[in-house]
């Protein structure tokens, strides 16, 4: 990636000695962390990027390593030497890639519905397989907006979809333009081919995993293999929850973030 390309779009908030970087997932955008930003801004400096091709960020054919480098450039511009990384779904791969390249810039890693590998493997029952990923990619080539809406909806439980909070979440999504189709197709390829389990095994900063008990992408059966890779990690499971606990149960998840990051 050319060093002359512009930075990804990002916003900042908060104050304090500690810093937190929020990384959204596939099809998302930075403002999806709004409930976290309003609660955590009094405690730390917050950096909230739009990943390439999402929100207000341009798409320039970035690969995973490029995304990590763009996040590094943002931290350099903001003169942040070290930060906690809080990531949702695909954003966790960016966070792990960042840690592998710049471990001295990472204070801790919190993963919400996120994994070092999203495709199933022997002894690793992740919720995706290559056929599902390729089917979604094919569907995105057609009715793009409807396919993205259906996929997003599938990541919530029936209980969550019937809640008042879900109405607020749908309103939040309408605050951003659709992501670029090319960016989503590239992200699906990364989800299919990337395996950062060995990277996770080498992490030497605090690690937190937050799962929904009904998240089909990150089923609870993954906890034992992840514990084997990262024995010191914290694991939290939200009841009656799908993939996006930070949206559906923001107060509960924010409390976990605060406990993890500390005073």
Written account of the structure:
This protein has a single domain (10-261), classed as 3-Layer(aba) Sandwich (Rossmann fold). It is built from 12 helices and 7 strands. The protein has helices at 34-40, 64-77, 91-101, 130-140, 144-154, 158-161, 164-173, 181-193, 197-201, 223-229, 245-248, 250-261; strands at residues 10-14, 19-23, 45-49, 83-88, 106-112, 207-212, 234-238. Strands 1-3-2-4-5-6-7 form a 7-stranded mixed beta sheet, with helices on both faces. Strand 4, helix 3 and strand 5 form a beta-alpha-beta unit.
List keywords for this structure.
263 residues; alpha/beta
Helix content: 40-55%
Give me the strand/helix succession.
Answer: EEHEHEHEHHHHHHEHEHH
Biggest sheet, spatial arrangement of strands: 1-3-2-4-5-6-7
Which superfamily, in CATH terms, is the homologous superfamily? Alpha/Beta hydrolase fold, catalytic domain
Major pleated sheet: 7 strands, mixed
Which outline best applies?
globular
